[in-house]
């Protein structure tokens, strides 16, 4: 008897979006769907999604013109935007459509997302903040442009060879960038050097060299797709890319010299400035992108409004840190030299238009340039800065400032080599100067800008940083997002402050268990990834203790490593104790020329090699330094973290945003009262955060009164033993003196207070162990952290900028 025919399920009728992806695959990628590889589908998916975004982009732009509104222009050397596919899909509400369309062809969206490179447009918190701000500007329906540089290689790709950092070019543009649109009509000439000559009542600057800046635009989609704004990045080209006469004469390299000089401007983020040529390249980069941006802003205003004098009514220019400070002089040049405004009138319009965000109290980060270099590259701008300075100093003298105060206020540092103070230029050329955390803002008034603050006492204000909850909760932690939605509904998706509704459920054991299950699932996923990429096995039931950020001595990865060595010694010395299993995860890049930061990376890897291969610790301690930490790696690590290390020397971290991301994902913070930790503590409650160490005031007092770290070290057995082990070569048997200088610096001066804070930090870590053993208590504290950090949304931060500084809300 014949068997019944097998029923073969028919493929569902393709959706309209599925049809569109296939059409794009054929007509724009040039592949048949049966022959297409994953990268072809990835490109087609972005193009298809981009088509949906473009209509909203055009609509947003038209609406701005029709309404005649004011635009925000955000100038930043960095935009650490990360991958955009998942972000855009989520914000436009098309994730499910994309998943179904791809599934019909046997593809997984998550696999295609992994093909997207991280855009190498930033380094750390400054650049990631700029990216969060751009997303929040669109979410709040505020018309805005972000302006920066389209770096070809950007911040380096980090490889770890034998524990050492190796810098490699980040080739994120190797296969093109399907998100971007070149705007040939938005091109501007950028001049360097040359002569300034009088002509009638004005002057003419005739640059010796000119380079062309051309805009490349990327759409930035706000939550629920209400507005799409523009990230405009500049690329550079020579006016004459090749000298054919030289090429034909056999000088093939010299013939391309002008194009090579242009390429260098957009090749690398933060080229080392330890050499004169490095300093010149940095200054050229900053002026290049700033001049192109200012020219673009003025061109747009004149085209649509006509009168340059109304610029402050239609444009708010925000300088993200000191890098674009030359915007003050450039805007003045355009006002006076191009549009013929009288200097005093131009100065008032300039100040009304520009505002400035300061991100650091470190004097070395408040850029200054040798006066001869500045005057050689930008002779007209140097004249303008002198003219501004004369007005400011007369104003200061009239206000009764002392000679010492006037010297500090001056735009020219006369102590030693004469240098142009870019932070002072930004301060005097702006109507608003803001810090990025309450403590940071107060310290600005007392330290780096004390004298300028006394002259302009109403100019400094605070805008505590925030992070976008879309990327840093909804997209990177969908499991936790679902649990929260089930518990309190969907209101928090549109207003992160609504997370506070979780407070009433903090004692709910079922909710605590569900959040714990999500955390463990995230830890399993991270452990699996680290096993595949690094070959290190991690216990997902251990406490994941994480410090991921730029490697810098003030961020004190070294303090963490010293305590790790002390813990390692204690576990081996007291095996009878019930130690809490810990996984110490480090990640971050050191600046190419920062010797001590690179040593810290090597030390972390040396400690990891010793600890991870020692059977006597029995898996109770693992140390991992993840290579090439970036946005995508952060999206894996942060949802899996139990403990967030925010242990900078008090008074030195402006704000931090990693601290906010960790707390939003249910990690407890161990940290000093520094940056935004102070405000996080106020929001989550003393019992839900672990604070230790000197305050900013106590740090300043110790430095002023003569601090003796050697005395503290000799009085702390655990600290002395750990330092001795590191300095004597226990972890570096191949080079016993490798860390002698690094540790010697703690004995000699300890500027970053590692010795002073060690005992408090070690005690705080043991209190974390006790908290971890109390599972119900830990879960309750995690819920309170999630519930109470909604205030640290970048939507709240941007609404404050918009209301108080830009006047667009």
Automatic annotation (TrEMBL):
Its cofactor is pyridoxal 5'-phosphate. It catalyses: [(1->4)-alpha-D-glucosyl](n) + phosphate = [(1->4)-alpha-D-glucosyl](n-1) + alpha-D-glucose 1-phosphate. Keywords: Carbohydrate metabolism, Glycosyltransferase, Pyridoxal phosphate, Transferase. Pfam families: Phosphorylase (PF00343). InterPro entries: Glycg_phsphrylas, Glyco_trans_35, Pyridoxal_P_attach_site. It is an enzyme of class 2 (transferase). SUPFAM superfamilies: UDP-Glycosyltransferase/glycogen phosphorylase. Its EC number is 2.4.1.1. Belongs to the glycogen phosphorylase family. NCBIfam families: P_ylase. Allosteric enzyme that catalyzes the rate-limiting step in glycogen catabolism, the phosphorolytic cleavage of glycogen to produce glucose-1-phosphate, and plays a central role in maintaining cellular and organismal glucose homeostasis. Phosphorylase is an important allosteric enzyme in carbohydrate metabolism. Enzymes from different sources differ in their regulatory mechanisms and in their natural substrates. However, all known phosphorylases share catalytic and structural properties. This is Alpha-1,4 glucan phosphorylase. It comes from Novosphingobium indicum.
């Amino acid at each position: 008897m014949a068997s019944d025919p097998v029923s073969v399920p028919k493929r569902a009728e393709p959706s309209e979006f599925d049809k569109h992806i296939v059409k794009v695959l054929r007509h724009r990628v040039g592949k048949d769907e049966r022959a297409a590889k994953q990268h072809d589908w990835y490109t087609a998916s972005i193009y298809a999604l981009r088509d949906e975004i473009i209509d909203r982009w055009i609509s947003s732009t038209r609406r701005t013109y029709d309404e005649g509104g004011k635009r925000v222009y955000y100038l930043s050397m960095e935009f650490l935007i990360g991958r955009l596919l998942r972000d855009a899909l989520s914000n436009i509400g098309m994730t499910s459509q994309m998943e179904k369309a791809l599934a019909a062809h046997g593809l997984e969206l998550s696999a295609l997302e992994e093909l997207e490179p991280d855009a190498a447009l930033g380094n750390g918190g400054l650049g990631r903040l700029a990216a969060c701000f751009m997303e929040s500007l669109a979410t709040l329906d505020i018309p805005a442009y972000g302006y920066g540089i389209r770096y070809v290689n950007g911040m380096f790709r980090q490889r770890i060879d034998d524990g050492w950092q190796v810098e490699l070019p980040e080739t994120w543009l190797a296969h093109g960038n399907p998100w971007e649109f070149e705007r040939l009509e938005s091109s501007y000439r950028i001049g360097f050097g040359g002569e300034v000559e009088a002509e009638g009542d004005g002057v003419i600057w005739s640059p010796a060299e000119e380079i062309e800046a051309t805009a490349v635009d990327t759409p930035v989609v706000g939550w629920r797709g209400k507005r799409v704004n523009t990230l405009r990045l500049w690329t550079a080209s020579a006016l004459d890319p090749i000298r054919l006469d030289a090429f034909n004469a056999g000088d093939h390299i010299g013939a391309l010299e002008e194009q090579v000089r242009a390429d260098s401007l957009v090749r690398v983020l933060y080229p080392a400035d330890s050499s004169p040529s490095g300093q010149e390249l940095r200054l050229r980069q900053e002026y290049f992108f700033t001049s192109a941006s200012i020219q673009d802003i003025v061109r747009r205003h004149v085209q649509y409004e006509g009168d340059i004098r109304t610029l402050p009514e239609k444009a708010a220019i925000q300088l993200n840190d000191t890098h674009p400070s030359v915007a003050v002089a450039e805007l003045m040049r355009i006002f006076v030299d191009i549009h013929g405004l009288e200097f005093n009138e131009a100065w008032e319009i300039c100040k009304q238009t520009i505002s400035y965000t300061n991100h650091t109290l470190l004097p070395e980060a408040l850029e200054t340039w040798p006066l001869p270099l500045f005057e050689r590259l930008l002779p007209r701008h140097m004249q303008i800065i002198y003219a501004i300075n004369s007005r400011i100093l007369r104003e200061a003298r009239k206000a009764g400032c002392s000679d010492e105060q006037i010297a500090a206020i001056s735009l020219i540092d006369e102590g030693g080599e004469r240098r142009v103070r870019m932070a002072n230029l930004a301060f005097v050329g702006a109507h608003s100067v803001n810090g990025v955390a309450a403590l940071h803002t107060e310290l600005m008034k007392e330290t780096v800008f004390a004298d300028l603050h006394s002259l302009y006492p109403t100019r400094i204000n605070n805008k505590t940083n925030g992070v976008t909850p879309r990327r840093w909760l909804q997209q990177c932690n969908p499991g936790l997002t679902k649990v929260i939605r089930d518990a309190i509904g969907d209101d928090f998706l549109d207003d992160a402050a609504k997370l506070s509704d979780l407070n009433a459920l903090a004692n709910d054991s079922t909710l605590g268990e569900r959040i714990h299950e999500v955390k463990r699932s995230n830890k399993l996923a991270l452990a699996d990834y680290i096993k595949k990429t690094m070959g290190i096995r991690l216990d997902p039931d251990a406490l994941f203790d994480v410090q991921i950020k730029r490697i810098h001595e003030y961020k004190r990865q070294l303090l963490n490593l010293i305590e790790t060595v002390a813990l390692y010694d204690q576990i081996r010395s007291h095996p009878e104790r019930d130690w809490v299993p810990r996984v110490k995860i480090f990640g971050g890049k050191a600046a190419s020329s920062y010797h001590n930061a690179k040593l810290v990376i090597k030390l972390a890897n040396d400690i990891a090699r010793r600890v991870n291969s020692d059977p006597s610790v029995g898996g109770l301690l693992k140390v991992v330094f993840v290579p090439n930490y970036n946005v995508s790696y952060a999206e894996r690590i942060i949802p899996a973290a139990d403990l967030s290390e925010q242990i900078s020397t008090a008074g030195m971290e402006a704000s931090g945003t990693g601290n906010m991301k960790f707390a939003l994902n249910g990690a407890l913070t161990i940290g000093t009262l520094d940056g935004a930790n102070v405000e996080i503590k106020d929001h989550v409650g003393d019992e839900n955060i672990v604070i230790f160490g000197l305050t900013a005031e106590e740090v300043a007092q110790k430095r002023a009164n003569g601090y003796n770290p050697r005395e503290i070290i000799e009085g702390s057995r655990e600290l002395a033993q750990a330092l001795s082990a590191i300095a004597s070569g226990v972890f570096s048997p191949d080079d016993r003196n490798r860390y002698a200088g690094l540790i010697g610096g703690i004995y000699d001066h300890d500027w970053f207070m590692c010795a002073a804070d060690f005992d408090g930090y070690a005690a705080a870590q043991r209190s974390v162990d006790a908290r971890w053993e109390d599972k119900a208590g830990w879960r309750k504290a995690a819920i309170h952290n999630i519930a109470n950090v909604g205030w640290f949304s970048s939507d709240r931060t941007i609404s404050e900028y918009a209301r108080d500084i830009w006047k667009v809300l």
